[in-house]
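Preliminary data (for renewal application), iron/sulfur cluster complex.
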Amino acid sequence: MTLERIEAHGIVGAGGGGFPTAVKLRTRASIFLVNAAECEPLLHKDKELLKHRSEAMFRGLRVAMDAVGAGEAVIGVKNKYDDVMAALKPQLPSGVRLFPLTDTYPAGDEFILVHDITGKVIPPGGLPKDVGAAVTNVETLVNIGLDRPVTHKYLTVAGAVKTPVTLRVPVGLSLAEAVEAAGGATVAPYAILIGGVMMARLAEGPDQPITKTTGGIIVLPITHPLVLRHGAKWPQIARVGRSACDQCRFCTEMCPRYLIGHPIEPHAAMRALGFTEPPNPTIAGTLYCCECNLCSLYACPEDLDPKNVCVESKPLARERGLVFKGQPEDVKPHPLAEGRRVPTTRLMARLGLNEFRNVGPLVEHEFRPQRVVLPLKQHAGPPAEPTVRPGARVRVGDLVAQPAEGQLGARIHSSIDGTVRSVEGSVEIEA
Ligand code: SF4
Ligand code: SF4
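Predicted structure:
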């Protein structure tokens, strides 16, 4: 399979970033890493895919290794999944091995994963290729191995639902239909966190469509602290942050990027917030925040939000060129980094998620949606341009949108048989 076919199938990083896979694979690397860490609490999609779609994953891995010229590959799986590793072991092709990852957060952050497996630190603002590595997640490799347009998405539905499960759903299905397939919500009224609980976005509503990058749907009561934290607005975050931060440094001392030696210090961004009028946290280092939220949702004893303070700093820091100017050898992991890993069990207790523990088995569910909504932007780069008009009849797998000539992006295909009703912002198809 060629990179042209990967591009034609509209394959993007299914782990959340949505970066076009064909573009990502146009690089050279000596080692290929499969990111199966899935460190967000409650999510099980990648583990289930390793169990049930390993053949397609290994086919995709071979294509990806050949594309970048990698002679070896390593699959990073949490050490608690010995059953998954035992099942994979006899299937491992030559040059491919397993690596047990600690059950900690954020083990799946690309920089942490590369460091854990290779011992090398990607420089601040760098990419895995800077240390000779390429990284892709499990579902993306499954999509390459399947060698067909991406019309469906695997995701875990968890939290306050009757039966937490992992499902294969048509892209463009509504969140509410996926929640119903998990037995429905057990609380009312409820909110939905998309993608996990740490790096989540609050859903705009239950009708919001599932895209190629939706990895998880977490249903929670609207009064749950995580829903309130993810719903907080900047003026409130800035006002409380500048008045209550006592500069204890816990946010920095627990920051995983600080611990691998990157020049990020969220407490310093908090300090800048408190000493500028109007509040302006723009300082060097914030560009290297991976937005894992560990500082805000776990480390800070005052429940402040250093992560969003770093995020707020980024555009101006980029504009002002506040970038790392040192040498790669200046970047050295903290001597206590190992002991400061955050176990998932402790994180779940801190987040008030113990009552939602799940195993998220993959179950077959036949969806027959009346309508799907395919956003024109579900990838990195500008929105795709529709290739169909209202009234057109399409079948599953037909092309409905593609990137403009020379633009970064990914093709979009119909996920049902039906009639196109609208192409404004999204391609809406009625069954
Ligand atoms: S952990 Fe909280 S209180 Fe302490 S420095 Fe960071 S933001 Fe301030
Ligand atoms: S979100 Fe916080 S803990 Fe995570 S990388 Fe950014 S500053 Fe560090």
